[in-house]
Specification:
This protein is mainly alpha-helical. The protein has 2 domains: 28 residues, no CATH class; 197 residues, no CATH class. The protein contains 8 helices and 3 strands. β1 and β2 form a beta hairpin. α3 runs antiparallel to α4 and α6 runs antiparallel to α8. The longest helix is centred in the C-terminal third of the chain and has 55 residues. The N terminus is likely disordered.
Length: 231
């Protein structure tokens, strides 16, 4: 039996008058975008997986770097005050965090001018910050590239649609025209979603990294102040 389309309702009518609501799953929506649309969506999916992997890998690394015993600096001060630099270095090696590595670098320079100790700690701090920020810039790149890739799919989809209209010869194939429009819309949405996720992940990691850097600076200053105290 032939179905009649309800133009105003956007649904289909069967002979008994009941309307049948049309649905479209995400898989069908992607598949309707044609080969170009599916290729671009596949690229965006790979970027999304890569962004999520980098985010969680860096998040766990930063969390591990931020964990330090609140009594750590007190123990370091006691060892340094009593001249037990070896014990202080062993303690730093056991803790093995960016803060402990900076303090260990400072302890290894004890006996030299305070300015030299400060310089050594600053140089070590730059290396630690670089390690914390490893691959984080990739998230910023993905957040900018993903929408552009999505817009590329939009342009391709619109070109396909215009091509079908130009070559229709007065008889437009609605299905081919719809495929071009699907390519245009799905890739745009996909690119924006990936870009938003990557941008949020990047900013969250930046905030977390800044907290660890502040922690490193605070403990380094505390260590230098202790060395500068009169005996």
């Amino acid at each position: 039996m032939i179905l009649q389309s309800d133009i105003q309702g956007g649904a289909e009518l069967v002979p008994d008058g009941e309307s049948v609501e049309k649905t479209l799953s995400i898989i069908e929506l992607i598949g309707s975008g044609g080969t170009a649309g599916m290729v671009i969506i596949a690229i965006l999916f790979v970027l999304l997986v890569f962004a999520i992997y980098i985010y969680f890998e860096r998040l766990f690394a930063i969390k591990a770097a931020s964990k330090i015993d609140s009594n750590f600096m007190n123990q370091i001060k006691d060892h340094v005050t009593n001249g037990k630099t070896d014990s202080a270095q062993i303690l730093c090696a056991q803790v093995n965090t960016p803060v402990s590595r900076l303090i260990n670098k400072g302890i290894s320079r004890i006996g030299k001018p305070l300015e030299d100790i400060n310089t050594a700690i600053e140089n070590a701090g730059r290396l630690e910050v670089y390690e914390l920020e490893r691959n984080v810039s990739v998230l910023a790149t993905i957040s900018g590239v993903a929408p552009m890739i999505g817009f590329l799919g939009t342009v391709i989809g619109m070109i396909l649609s215009i091509f079908e209209i130009a070559n229709a010869g007065g008889q437009i194939d609605i299905k081919l025209l719809a495929d071009g429009l699907y390519t245009a819309m799905t890739t745009t949405v996909g690119g924006l979603i990936v870009g938003i996720v990557a941008y949020m992940a990047y900013n969250h990691l930046v905030v977390k990294t800044d907290k660890v850097v502040y922690q490193m600076e605070a403990h380094s200053l505390e260590f230098l102040d202790h060395l500068n105290e009169p005996i």
